Amino acid sequence: KAGVTQTPRYLIKTRGQQVTLSCSPISGHRSVSWYQQTPGQGLQFLFEYFSETQRNKGNFPGRFSGRQFSNSRSEMNVSTLELGDSALYLCASTLAGPSRGEQFFGPGTRLTVL
Amino acid sequence: QQQVKQSPQSLIVQKGGISIINCAYENTAFDYFPWYQQFPGKGPALLIAIRPDVSEKKEGRFTISFNKSAKQFSLHIMDSQPGDSATYFCAASMVGNSGYALNFGKGTSLLVTP
């Protein structure tokens, strides 16, 4: 079974631009979560989508948003990019149900904001 | 506010030795405690996880010890190998329909010397 895939793998943007990242979960997984990883703050939860609805949201500004499609694929968008948004953005998928909690991560998208 | 505190920040162990990483949490509603292993350029990979109804779980060379009253849990890597050199993250999440958001520790960089 294919793992979680994320595109693109690397991205360079300038301040003020916006960016869209994509995540395809493991087949059959209905929950998709997004995390930001930086050297200073570590891994921080952004938001989770389940059945096309945002179920949970971390403590990030409204510039960070996401959505999930009917095939469980998810996108996250960051508008008005700031230098501090440079990070590795990780997507994780979960089967949901009795195996709750087991999150499988993709390789991430490395975003650099200049 | 860091909900999961992890120590040490870095660890050097000789091949064949035991690596021990500790985590502490505050929120007693947490009911799922996974450990992730991350190699450079890769997303975190689920290693082993425990729920609070057991005090220990072992999978191969990896063991989680869980102390509910002290709100602490630890990862033991027996017979550590150079291939175990990676960053390890503990995490915690809580029960309910609010989703699978993981609260991560800051990570431990493990180096196993030959």
Number of helices of chain B: 0
Q: Sum up the overall morphology of chain A in one term.
A: globular
Uncertain runs of chain B are none
Strand content of chain A: over 45%
Overview of the molecule:
The complex is a heterodimer of chains A (114) and B (114). Chain A has no helices and 11 strands. With 114 residues, chain A is mainly β. In chain A, the strands form 2 sheets. In chain A, strands 2, 4, 5, 6, 9, 10 and 11 form a 7-stranded mixed β-sheet that branches. Chain A has a 4-stranded antiparallel β-sheet with strand order 1-3-8-7, with no helix packed on it. In chain A, strand 5 and strand 6 form a beta hairpin. The model of chain A has no long low-confidence stretch (mean pLDDT 93). Chain B has 114 residues and is mainly β. Chain B is 0% helix and 56% strand. Chain B is built from no helices and 11 strands. In chain B, strand 6 and strand 7 form a beta hairpin. Chain B starts with a strand and ends with a strand. Chains A and B meet through strand 4, strand 5, strand 9 and strand 10 of A and strand 4, strand 5, strand 9 and strand 10 of B.
Features:
heterodimer, A: 114 residues, mainly beta, seven-stranded mixed beta sheet, four-stranded antiparallel beta sheet, 0% helix, B: 114 residues, six-stranded mixed beta sheet, five-stranded antiparallel beta sheet, 11 strands
